[in-house]
Amino acid sequence: MGVLDRISTALRSNVNALLDAAEDPEKTLEQAIRDMAEAIGQARGQAAEMIAQEKMVEADYLKNYRLAQEWERKAELAVTRGADDLAREALRRKIDFDRNAEMLSRQLAAQQEIVTKLKRDLTQLEVKYDEAIRNRDGLIARHRTAMAQQQVAKSVARLDMMDPGSELARMEDRIRGEEARTAAYAEVSETTLEKQFDALEADDDLNQQLADIKARVRGELPAPDPPRAEGQPKPASDSS
Predict the structure, then answer these.
(1) Residue 212, C-beta contacts closer than 8 angstroms, at least 6 positions apart
(2) 142 vs 176: CA distance, rounded Å
(3) Can you tell me the distance from the alpha carbon of 119 to that of 86, in angstroms, rounded to the nearest whole number?
(4) Structural domain boundaries of the chain?
(5) What is the pLDDT of residues 115-124, one digit of tens each?
(6) pLDDT of 156-210, one tens digit each?
(7) How far, in Å, CA of 33 to CA of 126, rounded?
């Protein structure tokens, strides 16, 4: 890329846009500043070279212009002396130097235009570079603030899209479900405990009946009375 192209690219670059598109704004800004500094250095060297060429072209132009004038005076002198042949030769030389001077004049104008544009672009780039140096920390801080504000705005937008009522309802349903499961676990535990006590009581009754049978077998207890219908009187005991 030529120096003028590099300067043009640097001048067109928007530092804020670079920061917005960069993953690491600080590194991007530092790189942009380095690129501008490099472009300035190259532009200064190129400008010096172009100015030197301009001076050389200008010197050649002035030389050919003076020689053309000199040969014109010689032609006039030859005419005054009646030496037309010498006058014609002097005019031929004058015409050659006039043509050279005209060509160099156009070249000089083009060279001056290039140098003028290069100086103008260089000045603008130096101003932009100085501005970037002065505002470097501020630009980075502004970019970080903007990114933080965008993040907050996105978070707020996501919250706005949510329905707080439905969220609370879902939470309430979940809590009610947890409460119901807790109550069910407690009920199951209580039922199990009651069954354990019932089993213990059943074992006690069974053991008592077994003990009674053993006592009757040993003659320690009388035989049990037969079952009676409801309302039937108890039979009298045998007194004999």
Answers:
(1) 221
(2) 49
(3) 48
(4) 3-162, 170-222
(5) 998 889 888 8
(6) 777 666 555 566 777 778 888 777 777 766 665 556 666 666 776 766 777 777 6
(7) 11
Decide: 54 and 111 in contact? Cβ < 8 Å: yes
Residue ranges for the chain with pLDDT beneath 50: 1, 11, 239-240
Q: How far is Cα 80 from Cα 62, in angstroms, rounded to an integer?
A: 27
Read off the tokens for 183: 């109550």
Question: Radius of gyration over alpha carbons of the chain, in Å?
Answer: 58
Residue owning tokens 């004049």: 105
Contact 10, 35 (CB under 8 A): yes
Residue positions counted in the chain = 240
Task: Tell me the whole-structure pTM to 2 decimals.
Answer: 0.47
What's residue 122's pLDDT? Answer: 86
CB 34 within 8 A of CB 136: no
What is the sign, positive or negative, of the torsion defined by CA atoms of 39, 45, 51, 54? negative
